[in-house]
Fold this protein.
Amino acid sequence: MNETLYKQIQRFYDASSGLWEEIWGEHMHHGYYGADGTQKKDHRQAQIDLIEEILRWADVQRAENILDVGCGIGGSSLYLAAKFHARATGITLSPVQAKRARERAQQLGLGNTTNFEVADAQAMSFADNSFDLVWALESGEHMPDKVKFMQECYRVLKPGGKLIVATWCHRPIDNAPLTASEQKHLAKIYQVYRLPYVISLPEYEAIAHQIGLQNIRTADWSKAVAPFWNAVIDSAISWKAIFGLLRSSWSTIVGAVSLGLMSRGYERGLIRFGLLCGNKL
Ligand SMILES: C[S@@+](CC[C@H](N)C(=O)[O-])C[C@H]1O[C@@H](n2cnc3c(N)ncnc32)[C@H](O)[C@@H]1O
């Protein structure tokens, strides 16, 4: 099952990353539009702001050796490496993304301090206690075993280091289970974006306790990031995007025509953008 899922994720990003970079640049994640989502700003700036707001929220002052779990084309890894004058390693399932990240690192003069590999976040080859910052921005939703994913992130974290996970979630289900209509909506999102399933933020928090993470904090930033999808929809109907789509794969086209699924998910309170951070003591 994982092999099929992993192949699908790999093909999805191999096929779509070039077009995404052309239209949106190097960051393959939501933007930040103020705590209540009302700030109007350039959308690429909003993506940088998301990184900065996460660092502020998680109180990251410095980092020396960073692991970017699910690194895309190195957007966060290179940004963080430059900001903190740190070493950074990025892992992705997509060889196309890893190659592009390496090229970008060279272009930015960061080739010697960064490293990009095709590797599975659930079975990493890094030694225990290797990194002082483990950063997983919008990759947790792809993981078939959320416990294994979090355990691996924790294992490679140095004592005193910080784990930050920002990921797509569904609403908490303590008071009411997901309805049939919500499950149907999620199933469509899973299919389009190659996700096995998502869980709620309280479930991530329970896993964080289970694996031994300390000083755990969580936050729901759905309001702050939801406007991003309207911007993506607008950009998808530009001529540049339409020409790009005509040259791209079927999965990229399906992704583009299904963009409304995420914004409707936020509108009905089903989709949530969850943050979690904590330390290894
Ligand atoms: C939405 S992209 C986010 C990219 C990047 N974090 C960013 O914000 O620009 C999701 C990334 O997770 C990676 N990914 C998904 N499942 C993975 C796994 N099991 N192991 C490693 N990377 C994975 C994908 O290859 C892709 O690079």
Q: What stands out?
A: The chain has a mean pLDDT of 93.
